Amino acid sequence: MYNEPLLSAPGTCRVSLSIINPVASIFLPLLLILSPSAGLADTPVTMPPPESYCQWEVKDYAIEKPLCGLAGDASRGKAIASDGSRGNCLACHQLPIDGIEAYGTIGPPLEGIASRLTEGFIRLRVVDTRQVNPMSIMPGFYRDPALIHRPGKPYLGRTFLSAQQVEDVIAYLVTLKQ
Asked: How far apart are CA 178 and CA 166, in angstroms?
């Protein structure tokens, strides 16, 4: 009765009539919607072409010079930090952003970070925190793409954030003083 396959070749869906019963008929439409043939599983992520990578230098646990000589914008940085598809800082850190009730607690709270750390040290932590703590689970948002281990296909050969986005986040974080 149950020896017929539910899914045949990849990208196609074949439902065995022998399993259709009142309960299965409720879930059948959901199965068909979520099947690979519905196109949802293979939807490509469109990314802009990778920008050229700017080398940076660590001196005394800091990256003193802005990446690529760029100036950051604090309002854009706040938006990036709170955006789940870009910086996503709220997944691990508490930030003083009005209207945000859910945030992660894996990383330290970032309120007042500019009173505790220098801009150069904050930049190093955002760019590649493994320079400070090799065991950190925080991603290096501007880590050399050649050093990123097993990135998702959309991130092959690129950084997680652009140099401008990193500088925007830094500009926001340095406003967080107590």
From this structure: 22
Q: For the chain, first and last CA: distance in Å?
A: 68
**Cα angle 59, 67, 151; round to 5:** 95
Q: Report the sign of the C-alpha dihedral through residues 145, 140, 79, 123, in that order.
A: negative
Residues of the chain with pLDDT under 50: 1-41
Residue 135: which CATH number?
1.10.760.10
Q: Cα–chain-centroid distance for residue 29? A: 32
Q: Which domain holds residue 20?
A: 1-43
Taking the complete model, does pTM exceed 0.85, yes or no?
no
